[in-house]
Write a structure and sequence with these properties.
The structure is a homodimer. The first copy, chain A, is of the alpha+beta class. The first copy, chain A, folds into 2 domains: 143 residues, PurM-like, N-terminal domain (60s Ribosomal Protein L30, Chain: A); 158 residues, PurM-like C-terminal domain (Phosphoribosyl-aminoimidazole Synthetase, Chain A, domain 2, Alpha-Beta Complex), CATH 3.90.650.10. In chain A, the strands form 3 sheets. In chain A, strands 9-11-8-12-10-13-14 form a 7-stranded mixed β-sheet, with helices on both faces. A 4-stranded mixed β-sheet of chain A has the order 2-7-5-6. Chain A has a two-stranded antiparallel sheet with strand order 3-4. In chain A, helix 1 packs parallel to helix 4 and helix 3 runs parallel beside helix 4. At the A-B interface, helix 1, strand 1, strand 2, helix 3 and strand 5 of A face helix 1, strand 1, strand 2, helix 3 and strand 5 of B. Strand 2 of chain A pairs antiparallel with strand 1 of chain B.
């Protein structure tokens, strides 16, 4: 199979229909997707919905631990999870460059399908556009998603003493992309952490009422996510460096490059801000999940601080600032 | 204001936050958009939802009668309308090429905001990515949308005698793009019909129960949309050429080029398939709307035919086939 995408695959005619049938319906088949015309129609109970969107332009499109398709599902699933929602339905919009190998598109669709199964979501509506050679870089994917917000999830103001949980190791997705992009040729386990972590909602159950806010630390990493939360609620935080889990290989790379893994994207981690006094209870829930075994209470919000500070191994403190210049673009 | 988009506007850091605040929040401001983190959260009653997505890669991005922003709102609003739904909430995902003028982005966001107001929808969640110069063609926009399906809308099998309404003139969007793309320099009124037509749902009211299917004839135009419906339900149709409304200027262009306006996109029209005997009743509803004054019953589904046929002015009949090769790409 050595066929390539042509402009005609995007004109809405016969080739578009065939592409949809042969690739997308093959992998994403479900009654809602194939049921009506250009929109999905489905029944919902009354309640709060979460709705989110993300476009994915990652380069390279295949990397250790994932690909643009897996990432496009995880990104939106994890954003819904951060809104306290069980992810239910996804849309997918492809922008494909003329000349893109159909075999690669098949691999990407297959990967999306597998990730959807793992996350318990369905792709129910989609769109495909083709642009001329040189007008895109292979393929860009947008996913949007709808989820049902847990009835006990109650996002609210962060106050002094609220505890901060991070559900795993730091900066692995961004580091994997960095190494593959520049073919640095370093040896070691540099697998992206890209993974759907929507089980967090079900494992928390009614205890989600103790969670004030969730945030998946993608672009800008854990550091930038914490700075944005701190800015929004106008309260500082203190993070314990010794509680941050960083894989030795990842740590070595960043020591070599002089970069800070805290600013590198995770794609399978969550930051939870938990009501003061309930950190350990929530931690014990979360770390029963396979994908969250390295969860830690990494620090707390604290009005003694006006910024996000990190207490180092040596006992000193330094301020974490908002990301001003990421050294690598197109990580998601 | 002569500033341009840099890669750093897409890295999730300080410049991304500033861009979101200075452009997107300025135009799309609403409580849901600014309320929580990366997802919108809102209350919904029980019922059927419609959910749809579309990516927009139109070239040129500004054209007579609209721009990529207006189109991105209309496309998704009209897809929701075709699902019998009142459009409520939109997401927007931007993929922007490094070097794109921020002033143009401002114009596009302003246009989206105005079109949302006209259609009664809100942009409640968004995402911005930036790719290197040469990795996109200015700007691509994805919109996804959620609407509430009218309780009396009941999509069902099409049978012989069901009537076909088209809500206006034919092929104007595709023709406008064609002329501007190739700078053909022809004089005349070549304005795109790009417009939100969601009022159709409210004006139909409970009579929507007589509508079996709706479809907005975008890529592939009226002809391709009818062929796809005919294929799906395995029934032919007969269309009366004299009932098709084509503006004189549009007709002249296509006579000159030897092309068929029936295959050119509309972006402000709807095809309604109406239960046999109710065509006139529904027509009288629809053509009370300003944007649907040229509505006509253009023909009917008929099991005497196995394909979509058109009866010409001269009384002959010809078959409309699925679009095999559109002469122009990137019309939406």
């Amino acid at each position: 199979m050595n066929q390539r995408i042509m402009l005609r695959h995007g004109d809405g005619g016969l080739l578009t229909s065939n592409l949809i049938r042969d690739i997308f319906y093959k992998y994403f088949d479900n009654e809602i997707l194939t049921g009506y015309q250009d929109s999905a129609i489905f029944q919902m109970e009354a309640g709060r919905l979460a709705f989110t969107t993300d476009s994915f332009v990652v380069k390279p499109i295949f990397f250790t631990g994932g690909d643009i398709g897996k990432l496009a599902v995880c990104g939106t699933v994890n954003d819904l999870t951060a809104a306290g929602a069980v992810p239910l339905y996804l849309s997918v919009g492809f922008v494909i460059e003329e000349g893109f190998e159909i075999e690669k598109l098949d691999l990407i669709a297959s990967s999306m399908s597998n990730t959807c199964k793992k996350a318990g979501v369905k792709i129910v509506t989609g769109d495909t556009k083709v642009v001329e050679k040189g007008s895109a870089d292979g393929i860009y994917i947008n996913t949007s998603g709808i989820g049902k917000v847990h009835e006990f999830f109650n996002p609210r103001h962060i106050t002094s003493g609220d505890e901060i949980i991070l559900t795993g190791t730091v900066g692995e997705h961004g580091t994997a992309i960095l190494l593959e992009r520049y073919e640095l040729g370093l040896k070691g386990d540099f697998t992206s952490d890209c993974n759907p972590i929507s089980e967090i909602i079900s494992v928390l159950g009614d205890d989600i009422k103790h969670v004030k806010l969730m945030r998946d630390p993608t672009r800008g990493g854990v550091a930038n996510a914490l700075c944005e939360i701190s800015d929004s609620y106008n309260i500082g935080a203190i993070i314990e460096e010794e509680k941050l889990q960083i894989r030795p290989a990842v740590k070595s790379v960043h020591e070599l490059l002089g970069t800070d893994p805290l600013y590198f994207a995770c794609e399978g981690r969550m930051i939870l801000v938990v009501e003061k006094g309930f950190g350990t209870k929530i931690l014990n829930c979360i770390n029963t999940l396979d994908d969250c075994q390295n969860s830690q209470i990494i620090g707390k919000f604290d009005d003694l601080y006006s910024k996000v500070c990190i207490r180092t191994w040596l006992g000193g403190e330094r301020i974490l600032t908002m990301l001003e210049n990421q050294m690598i673009s197109r990580i998601c």
